[in-house]
Structure formats: structure tokens, C-alpha cells
Records
---
Amino acid sequence: MATTHANKLNALYTQFAPGMPLVPEDLATLGISADLAVHYVRAGWLTRLARGVYCRPNDALALYPCLLLLQRRFKGLHVGGKSALDWYGVRQYVAQQPVLHLYGWTAGRVPEWFTERFPAAYHRKRLFDEHPDALLHVGPFENRSDAPQVSAPERALLELLSEVGVRQPLQEARELVESADRLRADVLRTLLQHCTSVKTVRLCLQLGREAALPWSSTLDPVTLPTGSSRPWVSRSTDGLLVLPP
């Protein structure tokens, strides 16, 4: 029994990557039951972060493994909007402790054990006509197998624009659009064609034209869901936002 116990502890400390949060399913692969996990917590061999979430003592949690765990619990979860643009180097200001913008299909709250370490905001948003198991232009960051899901720059920009008038200042969005001069026109066109927000489509076209960006000149508004022939009007903290058709 002592040998089996030692083998399980050795596996616990060697078979999982540093900084990885552990859940009962992970522990079960090592033969560690729920009761044994409680014993390990009491003995100081495991640290309980929340109900059903653990880490090894003195193990600083890493962002990528934590996001991979959240992806298992939130349908369609991915890094998007301003955060995804920042990961690709499209930014205006460097915040000392930036908020990580996460998007998903289901309502919920990011757990405290995560936000205490990585300040984050979760947005339940269905901006595109798509399926949560096959999100448009969302994939592992830098195509790495151990990386979390993240929006492509083109999708991230539209997610950012969808927040204008709600949580996103217009001026900052305008500056970020001006910095996004290398977007792929074909990818952006596909996303706009599947976009369910008239405001987002119109705002993308308008800001792209204002900045005379290369991708803007290739987008034909006639082929995009820009809504009716009437202006789109909304009042926010930025003032009155008027988007022509």
C-alpha cells in the first residue's frame, strides 16, 4: 500500500505540466479518488482552489492551462476582442494589468480562482451565424497544441466593434482599427457575411473607409448584411452614434 501511495504521489508531481489546474477527471487517471484527494489536501500534498479544482502546493498557475480547463466547461469559450488583438500585437496602450476578454456561448461567470490570478471579463455573445463547436476563424493560438482557443485578428476586431456603445469607447476602437491595416480581406468578408449585428457591420465599413485601409476598399457593402436603408442610431457615453447604411 505504501508503494502504491508513493507511486500516485510521484505521478501527481511528474505527469502534469507545471502551472496546470487539476480536476477530478485528471486525478482519476492516476487512480486518485475523490476521498483520496481530500486526504491529500489535508496532508498538504494538494491545494484546493474551489470545489473540484486543485493544484499542487506552491505551483503558480499558468494562463494557458487554466484557459484550456475553462474551455472544457464553457461552450465556445475563447480569447477574443481587445485581448486577442493584443496577443497579435494590435494595441494602442499597454495596460499594467490588462483585463482578459473571454467570449462564449453560454451564460456564466468565470470562477474566482481564475480571476484572482488573471483579471478577466466574460462576454456571452453570439455575433455570428455559426455553431459553438465550429466557431468561425477561432483556433489554438499560433497553432500550438497546448494553446487556448483565440479569435483570428479579423474576428477579434469585429468582437471589439460589437462592444462600442456598451463597454468599448469609440475613440479607442477607431485607433485600433487604424492599427489593423494588415487584416485579410477575404477572412473579414466571410465574417461580415455571417455577422448578425448590423451595427458591427456598418461600424467596420465606416471606420475602415475613414482610415483608408487596404482591406476596406475590397469590401462591397451591397454583399454584406448592412440592414435597412435607414441610419442606425444609438446613444451612449460617447454621445450619439449614427451609422449610415
---
Amino acid sequence: MAYDKNQATHEFTRWSESYDRSILQLLLFGPSHRALTRRLQEVVADRPARILDVGCGTGVFASKVRSALPNARVWGIDLVAGMLGKGQARWNHHREHVLAVQGDSERLPFATGTFDIVTCANSFHHYPHQDRAVAEMNRVLMPGGRLLLIDGYRDGLWGRLIYDVCVAGIEGDVHHASARRFRELFDGAGFASVTQRVFRGPAPFLLSEGVTGTSSAIKPPHFRPVAPVATPRSA
């Protein structure tokens, strides 16, 4: 049976209880968050920016972005209410500058051209329709905006063992895209340029970066902008 959103919701609702204590925070999430934060600092510097973190979970990375980029405004979106709820303390602490939204990566509840930067870290392999998600990330970016997407690097023997065998054995029929497939997805979504960088280690990961075109001809939004944004209450 193909992996679907119901499976993802069930899995992450269960995982939310221990997510912040997971060994993956040390092996994969921490190193990938640091790499992504450094790249954001290079791109944004001290300029004001509107940043959307897709698949934000409990808000660990969104809070790091806020700390690293004091002039940024950050939105986090996640499909699973339980994950957002477990991050309630973080959302409350950063409530003036970091906002949480429950929503679907395939139909982002934001107007076209809303954000300067979209990030997605370590959740993309859970998305059943990856082409739709990348297209939506492109849509909500301003002309000249950037998508920074990190996921496990499954090319090569070690990557296939880690992600296609071990991770898939635990998480089900998830799909870690190859570097080539990521380029195809970005190209298909209309990104004007795509660059990639591989980070080696016990859990290697790939950073794919796409820049939108500068044309003002943009698609109409699916939704009106959401404001104000409310976070779910903890159980």
C-alpha cells in the first residue's frame, strides 16, 4: 500500500511524544539544521525576511531561525496537530515573531508570492505527492525567492542502506528522492536555477536550493492569507 497522509499523521502523532528527544536530533536534525541556518544567514544576513518552514514539527528549527535571524518573521506549517501542540512552549516563547499553522504542504494556506524564503528540513520523504508540494512552495515564494530543501542523501551504497532500507523499514513506504529527482522536481515546478550540496556523515543529507524567476506573472492563490494564526492547544 502506498504511503499516504493518514499514515503520516498517525506516525507523527505517535512520534510527537518523543520527537524532541529522538537520536535523530543528534545524528541528522542537528547537523542539517546548522547547515541550513548557515545558508540562511548567507542569503538573508540582517535584512528583514518572511520565512516559511514547511513540515515544522515541534518548531525546533523555526525557533533556531528566529534566533539566527533577528529581523526575520517566521511561519511554521505542519500537517499534524500533535506535533504543533508539543511545541506549544516554543510557539509561546517566540509568539511575536514565529507563528504556527496547521496545514497541508500540497495546498499551502498562503497567498501567492507571500514569502522571501521557504525551508523544508527532513520531512519531504513523507510527502506522498512530492511534485505538488514543490509546486506549492514555488507558488508562495516572491519572484526571486528561494526554496532551501534538505532531505536524506540516498545516492550511493551507504545512503541507500540508511534511507531505502533502514528508514523505510521503520517509517514505511516513504520516498527519499535522488539528487537527480530533486532537480527534476525543482525544474518542473518552475525554479529558474537549482544548486545542490551534499553533506557527508553517519546520516548524509542533501541541500537542494532553487531560486524562482523574476517574472511578475504568478499563479492565483488557493486561499486567502491566514491572519491571525492560532496554534493548537496542548492536550
---
Amino acid sequence: MKHKQFAVIGLGRFGLSLIKELSRMGHDVLAIDRDEGIVEDAVDVAAHAVKADATDEQALKSLGIRNFDVVVVAIGENIQSSILATIILKEMGVKKVVAKAQNALHGKVLEKLGAVVIYPERDMAIKLARSLVSQNVLDHIDLSPHYSIMELVAPQAFVGKSLVELGVRKKLGVTILAVKRGEEIIVAPRAGQVLNAGDVLVAVGKNEDLQRLSELED
């Protein structure tokens, strides 16, 4: 994996968690916050941690921020600072700006500015709701507002039957991309692939079709 340079602005719970994971994956991360105490907490987590005002263009230039592969604006409740920081980063020519949105209107503004917008709290709530509704669902990745990839344990009713017998694509409009069987991964399984107990299906399709698949009885 190519190591990238990341900068994370705003060291709340989300920002710190992101820094920890990126650092664990071997990437260089610059942590930025205007609160000196918070910056000190990030020293042991990030490669570099500095106190700086993200709405101060000169301060960001002095950090060489435009040379980073990705800059994440993880500022918490201060929507004005989030928007202003995003404007400055885009005008400075940062390759990729990812910004955390507090609500739909905030997100719409960030999108207009050219940032990749994320909604951590909303997305986590949706993911939790899906897992609570169906205990079979292991993971869920949104591809767009209407399409997703879902990992789920094959329902008991699927065991011993082939994909063509089940007619998953024809009846539900869902495509099985892969079947995980222990350590083995069967990519692009044939129509005649028979499913075993405990198989994990990796499926892609419209959200409503995936929902129907996840709600099938065991």
C-alpha cells in the first residue's frame, strides 16, 4: 500500500479516532487544532501535532498544507469555521478535501465548495440500525444514495442450493460478487455455485433489494 500524507483539522472524538487508525495503517498524519491542550493529547497519536487556526490562511500555508494528499476538516460544532477552512483549503489547491458535516444544509454548502462530504454520526446510526434489524448483516458499504454493497451470512434456506436455483438476481435484483467460506474467497461465483452453512455473501444492488435479502428468514 502506498503511504500517503494526511492532515486532520479538528481533534474531537472523530478526528482523534481517524488519526489513530490512519497512523496504525502506517500513514503520516498531521494533527491540527486551535486548542493547545487538545493538541498535546494528540502528540502520542499523530506523527506531528500543531496548534493552528484553520481559518488563518497564512498559518495553513506555513504548514505546507497544500502538499498533503488528503486534508480532513473534522471541526465539530463550529460550522462557520468548517466552511471557511474548506474554502481556504480548496483555494490553496489541496488535492482532496474531506469535510465532516453536521447536517444536510451544512453538507450541501461543503459539496458546493468541492469537498467530499461525510456524515459520521448519521452513517453510524444507519449502520447500527441495519445491524439491529437483521442479525445476518455483517457489513454495509454505501456506493451511492441508492446502491450499496452488503456482507451477510447466507440464510439457512439458501444452504445446499445453487445461486441459479435461488434466483437471487432474477427475484431480488441483487448480484453476488463473492462468497466467503472460512479463509477461502470465491470471487464472481458461477451460477451453479452451491452455498454451504456459514457462507458469507458479498452482494451489490439497490438498497431496497438488499434490505429484502437481509430480511429473508433463516
---
Amino acid sequence: MEYRVVGQSDLRVSAIGLGCVTFGREIDRQAAFAVIDHAVERGINLLDTAAAYGNGASESVLGDWLASRNTRGRIVLATKVHGSLQREQILRSIDESLTRLRTDFIDLFQLHLWNASTPLDETLGALETVVRQGKARYVGCSNWRAWQLAKVLLMSAKSGLSRLESIQPPYNLIQREIEQELLPLCADQRIGVITYSPLAAGFLTGKYRRGQPVPPGTRFDIMPGHQPIYFTDRGFEMLDQLERVAQQARRSMAQLSLAWALNRPHVTSVLIGARELAHIDQALEAQDIACKDTIDTTLAQL
């Protein structure tokens, strides 16, 4: 497993991270424990969750695992602010997360969504407080645009406050908007990029087809809000192209989609969601593909 530094911090994270959004929502505690155990045994050290996932259920499951395994020192633990970005809410959110996660500190505490209604100096001041209190080692953000990140980086530099060391955007064969401005900004400013949804919430596995009903129990059935993002003419065209390339390469569509995501420049770590052990193995196999020069020509077609 390759490990990379997040931004200008001293955090070293695995090239593949485990997104814990499924815990307590799509899989129960026992299944989640098995997934985490397998991921850590295979070298994955970044565990990413959020207070919003399952209304705290994901953090609680992860906290129980951390307490039972005594592996806190080996794990880079990341979570996200719940609710608004007002000072009081940020301070309340991290305390609640620490309780559920059963730990004294968060390695990477992230602002989950941009919130224009709260003054940025208030938000940055609250983040500085949690860092100074030792409750968070570093801070980052999630789902922000390039101009928003650039604005906050400038403000924190001028004020001498803790800078955002990472950003967490979606990135896959269909959602590639970050290539225009966000990735160049992060490369220039040394910001860690932790991407998520490399399989487009399962769309790129081929289980969804144009004009066919959504299979019950799948991500797009449980979270129908994903459908407008991917169930488009462009999305299905990419799916058709991916299927052709996968057949030529004698690889699965999921393998090639993951290999593509893991092979992108300026990406620090790629978060994968897992409901079973095979999903972990699939990502690790894709990492091997991404390391082979012979696959570059195939991936370039996508």
C-alpha cells in the first residue's frame, strides 16, 4: 500500500481510504467491524466518516470498533462538522463526534458543506479553537468549489489561523469538474485531495441500465437523490464506453473505474465505500492495475 502526505500536515494516509457512510445505514455493526478489520489488515489507514452519516450511527459504529481493537495510533481518523458553520455549532459538533468516536482527538476535522450564511472569520476562528484545544490535529473541507477554498486559504494566511489541509470532492469518470480549477489550485497550494465516489455510487459497475428499473436495495434505490447526477444521456454514454473498454481489457467495469480514479494526478487518497470484504479486495486489485504501465493506453480511452 502506498502512503501519501495530506497537504502540509504530518498525516500520512493510504492511497485508498475507507469511507464509512454505509455503517449503520446499509450494513450493521457486525458487518461493519468485519469490513474495517479487513481494510486495516490490508494496509488501509484512513477512515472517513461524518456526523451526518446515519445521524451519528456511522461514528458510533466506528467508535465501538476503535475501542474494541485498540488501534487508534495506527488510524488516521477523519470526520465532518454537523449542521451550520457557526462557532457554537462547530464546538458542539466536535464534542459530540469525539463522544461517539470514543477518542480524545480527530486527525482531520472537515467542514462538510459550504455555508454562505455564516461569516468566514467566525468559522475559521472556531476551527482554530478546536485545533488549539487539541481536539483536532488538522482541519479541511468537503464539497467546496475552488474559489471558496482559495478565499479561505487567503483569509487564514492573513490571520495566522490554521489552514485547511485537505478537500474532499466527488471524482469519477462522469464527475470530472474538479479538473478545471480545483485540482490545479490544490497542486499549487499543496492541499490534500481526498476524493470519494470513484464508482459514481455504483453507477459505473454496470448494474444500472438506461430505461430499466433501479434494482431494489441498491444505493440508487436507498438514496434516490443520486439519480439526477448520473442518470443522464452523458452518464449512460460513458457507461457504454466503459463497458466496451472493459471487454477489450478483460477487466470488470468496476476495476477499470477504480483504476482510473487511483491513477489520477494530484489525488492524495481515494475513498471507497464497502458493504462486504470483496469491495475492499476489488479496490486493492484495481490499485495493482493502476500501477501497471500496460494499462495506461486502455485507461486513456475513458
